[in-house]
Amino acid sequence: xNASLLAALNDSERLLVTQTERAELAALDEDAxxxxxxxxxxxxxKHVGQYRRGASARVVDHGARGQAAPENQRAALKAEAFEExxxxxxRRVAVLARxxxxxxxxxxxxxxxxARHAHRPGAPGPASAEGRKGPAVTGERTGDRALRSPAxxxxxxxxxxxxxxxxxxxxxx
Length: 173
Description:
- With 173 residues, the chain is mainly alpha-helical.
- The protein has a domain at 3-118.
- Helices cover 71% and strands 0% of the residues.
- Helix 4 (30-62) runs antiparallel to helix 6 (73-118).
- It starts with a helix and ends with a helix.
- The mean pLDDT is 84.
């Protein structure tokens, strides 16, 4: 981080910003990184708010935003320092979230593969016909996939009615 940005911070703020260095972030797990991101975001919002309030108060005295800006430089530097720190932490949280999502997806796929292989036809266990309750399995489609389910009939009727309404409107012209 820029030395002038760090010089604008006090000790506790500098400590918070140094927790966002690459080595420090690498040691954090996803939950700790999210907590750090929340703390950095709160600090950034605080300093951005202070900068804006200070700048707007000085505009009345100076008559223009450009002339009031130099007096508010320290607040702007603090806001910028926390903005950079937040960007670093947010990138790390995004990386950790993608990794966690990939791991979860891999676990779910492995569980689905295991369940599918466990229920092969002819395999012993509850998947066989004598151990299973309910109707016999046939090759016909069932439920919403059936050719003539109540949902498909309603959809078909709705489509026909819409077409009939459009045709009636055209015929009445």
